[in-house]
């Protein structure tokens, strides 16, 4: 509706870049009755392709859309993902990069956002539309199709893709990009390719295009017939179970999940993305499920006859490559995304988790048998005892689990915990005892090394907008640190404090473990086992972190780590704590479901052959799509 002050015929002459930024500045979202700017700002590295036009436009809105200077385009995307997770997909950041390799560096970050269903806007430089200066610096020429370039590589890893070839196109493209990023079913990254010349071209835009717009995220009402079918199936259950995924938090349905489970006495297990849906002490929380899960959750999964999957895409780490469940178990999948709701012959309930759980609860007269609930709780008690011993320390080698236990005991209940890739996400998933809802971010959807630091920086930016007195704590291995560490510097520059628990096991130890578990010799994973390394040595991580402006110290054992963590909590600056951990001992050995890994069918190695036979022995448990 046009405001009285603006006529439908009024126009504003702007460049394409200026119009994009002016429009973004006027997009808001309603969250808990409060109107906030939808876009929290952006991460940018300028170069040819974005500095002269987009940079000019951004300069004039520094207060409305703060621009954080990245050190690496991939890490900028990770930071944007961490920000979106912290805001439960209700707000997003944009990333801008120059034409060529600056933009292509964002492909991995886009893949992470796509796999995790996270909103992120990519405003990326592109080659000249006129082609008069072709080929330009860093242009990737395709001899048979001049319209095909590096930016087309984003098409498989974004939910929305457009190349702006005329200034007027943003009138349709920008709202479509935002609609995609806010859609619960299609949420993911949106990409706009911005040719260098088009960014500077002008157009007489309708003034109404720039009026303030307040967005609300749609809640999809489930179909009554699907709810009725789900109720009918659930009433037949003798051993029901709920799998709670990350979608429960994105729907803000944690209370509804808890209430539904309590009303019907149904045990709940959590996916990796769904960690921190329920507190560790809740009597119906039976633990994390799957390959990096718990004996307790996997024990009831193997016996459950009706499984209600809420807000999960049922990836292989959750399902144990589809060996974690009885072959005749029936699934009810509640999901806003039709694609996820129908997986593995599930009875689908396509709808918002909050609304769907409410609809189920309203008409469901059912409670799970007491002996089934008792079995589940007894299994959880055994798992709790295992974790308590696993995180303890004394006369045993330093381990990830010990470090996790120390931080768990000393952190504030609202501190945010971040982990990604390598061995740490598995160890955090299995050993972390949730202190409060929505406080754990384990990035295992795309399993990107390097997210630990960059994602934590983005999460910290978001955290300071709502809970500035809490800390963001990230668990990082030495391999991930070496891969992408520059956002320690970013966090110091922007005064967004992180606490980094840097656990050094001398290389890529978890992949070395997989290598050994499949009968292979250690090779090229631990620094000591690299054939091209004549004299292995460790990195001085304390000196390195300090050189980027962080406070840093190295400790010898978990007891010292606890004291260092107290100092880190008291500090107002990014703080890095380094501790060596054993690459072979101290892993969480319980709780693992089978995981399908390709192993050699023929080999000269007796160990590899034996491991292959042992690995394949569990394949008969695998559900074949039903």
Automatic annotation (TrEMBL):
It comes from the Bacteria. Residues 227-360 form the Thiamine pyrophosphate enzyme central domain. It is an enzyme of class 3 (hydrolase). Keywords: Hydrolase, Thiamine pyrophosphate, Transferase. It holds the Pfam family TPP_enzyme_N. Belongs to the TPP enzyme family. Residues 43-138 form the Thiamine pyrophosphate enzyme N-terminal TPP-binding domain. One of its GO terms (biological process) is isoleucine biosynthetic process. PANTHER family: 3D-(3,5_4)-TRIHYDROXYCYCLOHEXANE-1,2-DIONE HYDROLASE, THIAMINE PYROPHOSPHATE ENZYMES. One of its GO terms (cellular component) is acetolactate synthase complex. This is 3D-(3,5/4)-trihydroxycyclohexane-1,2-dione acylhydrolase (Decyclizing). Its EC number is 3.7.1.22. The keyword Hydrolase applies. It comes from Aliiroseovarius halocynthiae. GO terms for molecular function: 3D-(3,5/4)-trihydroxycyclohexane-1,2-dione hydrolase activity; acetolactate synthase activity; flavin adenine dinucleotide binding; magnesium ion binding; thiamine pyrophosphate binding. Residues 437-578 form the Thiamine pyrophosphate enzyme TPP-binding domain.
């Amino acid at each position: 509706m046009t405001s009285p002050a603006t006529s439908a015929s009024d126009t504003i002459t702007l460049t394409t870049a200026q119009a994009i930024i002016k429009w973004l500045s006027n997009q808001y979202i309603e969250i808990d009755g409060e109107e906030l700017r939808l876009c929290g700002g952006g991460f940018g590295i300028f170069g040819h392709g974005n500095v002269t036009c987009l940079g000019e436009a951004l300069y004039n809105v520094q207060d409305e859309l703060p621009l954080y200077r990245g050190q690496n385009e991939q890490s900028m995307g990770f930071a944007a993902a961490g920000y979106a997770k912290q805001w439960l997909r209700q707000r997003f950041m944009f990333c801008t990069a120059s034409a060529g390799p600056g933009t292509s560096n964002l492909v991995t970050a886009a893949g992470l956002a796509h796999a995790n269903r996270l909103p992120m806007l990519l405003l990326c430089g592109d080659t000249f539309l006129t082609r008069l200066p072709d080929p330009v610096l860093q242009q990737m020429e395709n001899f048979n199709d001049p319209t095909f370039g590096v930016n087309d590589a984003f098409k498989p890893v974004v939910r929305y893709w457009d190349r702006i070839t005329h200034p007027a196109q943003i009138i349709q493209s920008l709202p479509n990009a935002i609609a995609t990023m806010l859609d619960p079913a299609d949420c993911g990254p949106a990409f706009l390719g911005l040719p260098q010349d088009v960014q500077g071209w002008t157009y007489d835009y309708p003034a109404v295009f720039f009026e303030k717009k307040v967005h609300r995220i749609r809640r999809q009402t489930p179909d009554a017939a699907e709810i009725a079918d789900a109720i009918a199936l659930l009433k037949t259950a003798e051993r029901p179970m709920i799998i709670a995924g990350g979608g429960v938090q994105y729907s803000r349905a944690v209370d509804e999940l808890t209430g539904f489970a309590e009303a019907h006495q149904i045990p709940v297990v959590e996916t990796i993305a769904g960690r921190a849906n329920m507190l560790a002490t809740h009597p119906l929380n039976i633990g994390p499920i799957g390959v990096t899960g718990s004996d307790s959750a996997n024990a009831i999964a193997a016996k459950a006859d009706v499984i209600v999957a809420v807000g999960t895409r049922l990836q292989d780490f959750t399902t144990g490559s589809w060996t974690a469940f009885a072959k005749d178990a029936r699934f009810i999948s509640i999901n806003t995304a039709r694609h996820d709701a129908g997986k593995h012959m599930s009875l689908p309930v396509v709808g918002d988790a909050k609304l769907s759980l409410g609809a189920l609860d309203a008409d469901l007269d059912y409670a799970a048998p007491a002996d089934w609930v008792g079995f589940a709780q007894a299994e959880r008690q055994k798992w709790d005892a295992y974790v308590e011993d696993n995180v303890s320390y004394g006369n045993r080698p330093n381990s990830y689990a010990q470090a996790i236990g120390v931080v768990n005991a000393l952190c504030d209940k609202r501190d945010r915990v971040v982990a990604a890739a390598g061995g740490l996400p598995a160890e955090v998933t299995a050993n972390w005892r949730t202190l409060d809802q929505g406080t754990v971010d384990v990035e295992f959807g795309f399993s990107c090394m390097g997210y630990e630091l960059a994602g934590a920086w983005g999460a910290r930016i978001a955290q300071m907008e709502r809970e500035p007195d809490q800390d963001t704590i990230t668990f990082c291995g030495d391999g991930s640190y070496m891969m992408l560490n520059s956002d320690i510097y970013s966090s110091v520059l922007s005064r967004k404090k992180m606490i980094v628990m840097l656990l050094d096991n001398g290389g890529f130890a978890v992949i070395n473990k997989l290598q050994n578990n499949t009968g292979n010799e250690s090779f090229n994973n631990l620094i000591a086992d690299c054939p091209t390394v004549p004299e292995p040595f460790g990195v001085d991580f304390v000196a390195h972190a300090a050189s980027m402006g962080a406070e840093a110290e190295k400790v010898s054992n978990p007891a010292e780590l606890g004291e260092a963590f107290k100092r880190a909590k008291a500090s107002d600056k990014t703080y890095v704590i380094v501790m060596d951990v054993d690459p072979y001992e101290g892993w969480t050995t319980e709780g693992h479901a089978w995981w399908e890994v390709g192993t050699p069918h023929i080999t000269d190695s007796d160990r590899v052959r034996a491991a292959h036979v042992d690995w394949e022995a569990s394949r008969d448990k695998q559900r074949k799509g039903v």
